[in-house]
Amino acid sequence: MRRSMLFLPGNTPNIIINGDELGADAVILDLEDAVSPSEKDAARILVRNAIKLLKFEKSEVLVRINSLDSEYWKSDLAEIVPLKPDVIMPPKMSCAADVQAIDSYITELESRLGIENNTVKLMPLIETALGVENAFQIATASRRVCALQLGGEDLTADLRCKRTKEGNEIDYARKRLVCAARAAGVDAYDTPFTDVNDDEGIYADAEYAKSLGFTGKASISPRHVAAINQVFSPSQEDIDYAYEVMEAIRIAKEQGRGAISLRGKMIDAPIVARAQQTIAMAEELLMMAGGRYE
Amino acid sequence: MTKIVRRAYAGTIESSDVYVELEPCDCGIDIQIESVVLKQFGDAIRGVVSEMLQQFEVESAKVKIVDRGALDCVIRARVEAAIKRGEGEQI
Known about the structure:
heterodimer; A: alpha/beta; two-stranded antiparallel ribbon; B: alpha+beta
């Protein structure tokens, strides 16, 4: 389960070594924007060693590689794929062919290294206007794709508009991305909220993303992780209602009743599906918290 | 054998990092270490650096280490990066 995904600069040891303690469900070790061109080689080695030798027990590990139009992406994959990271995040994915180029090289590496095919998953980062328009094709371009991630900063540059805190300029992209991801049967992750000092704004931004159907949200600051986790966790009220729904279903089945109502509302298939999702998530959170729901 | 043919460095002097500088020489391996935890971990740092030099078959180099409390995996990464930046063709 990923509610929060925290970007960590790939060439900064004092941040990476604490990555597992920052509360995020996933950390994204970044070889792209956070690393200057002259340090790409050193960051690649550091990230490889971190995955190999540090214990990430609380956070899943993703690696953002450099873009296809750079000279670095193949070296990034060659260094990182042998470590079998949970997910690779390729940036600036604009069409199915972009994903297939990455897929093809990972397949070559997996074969060469004797790693089972399709072990390494992909989370394409969509941050161009073309990528937004091709989101469904991107999500279905490879069996490796497990989710789509929206990148608001590069996208607004491509759209030639200003990135604002309100986010009206990325509203279409957010909705289109969620719809494409859900249609493809994969998860969708929202762009980071970039004002790291706005502790209130992150709640509103994450709430809005959740209301659109996003699975979770990326972050560039550890300060935002707790808010994101809270927003993307089911509330106690949601959990109680979900158990009530499932109990009502059980009783109705016992009594041989077809139509079921709860609190004056008809319980239909989508409500049951939502209740099951809520319970599954609550149980996963319970396990993560060592048996105590937080 | 890997020959260090140019002065090369990797890492920084920021907290939890280590600065590694390599210089070509014909005098074998000469490791100088400066560390905030030299008394406690000087020998361990020297051991890790020596191991990395051996792994990459570097037989001759002046090595300067400025440690800021780096973990083993960070020291290994920085030494490797410095070797790759300073190496010439394999002999």
